[in-house]
Amino acid sequence: MQFFPVELLFVCVVYLSGKMFTFPQQTNTAHVRLNTTREDFSAVTVCLRSFTDLSRNHVLFSLATPSAANDFLLFKRAAANQIEISARNVGALFDGQEYTLNTWLSVCATWDSTSGLGQLWLNGKPSSRKFTSTGSNIRGRAIITLGQEQDSHGGGFDANQSLVGMISDVHMWDYVLSNCEIHRYMDNLNFTPGNVLNWRALDFQIRGRVLLEEKQAICY
Ligand SMILES: [Ca+2]
User: How many Å apart are CA 16 and CA 134, to the nearest integer?
Assistant: First the structure.
């Protein structure tokens, strides 16, 4: 167990390769805030890896601005194999996703304000491309949370939408990644790290019972 001085636990920029955040219990408080100085996004890609045994609703990524609580949201619905992407508060549902429990999943979500199209990638498989919202950017100070879903700017958490499990390798870009770059992410090859959020230089704050741990390797 590494020891960090207390002040560094609250605001720090850390190289997190090989690490994961563990959300070990259902609460309406425990979460991680991811900090970025960037704002005003006309396009977004978010990629992350997640692990859970939840079959209820749960959040994977929540970005709120003062004008929209679901300005960019990645949300697993209770309905089997259904994942929602919301952009600018407008959601699209992606069905038939092989959302296997108790295994690491690689998830990417893209959105572009010009076309209004969102797309989900799960373990290398692209979804249908679906319309969410067009005509305006994600604008204003973004509060980004892992572990809790925001119904207001930085709050409005619901234990029944919290994540219990682990999250790793979170990146966010202010453009739509090419299919090849997404595959490189999913296959754990070299890829261009996020220019909005970069897991290799992450600025974050832990609130409540969330642990930063070594990702557990599988030994045969
Ligand atoms: Ca909610």
Answer: 34
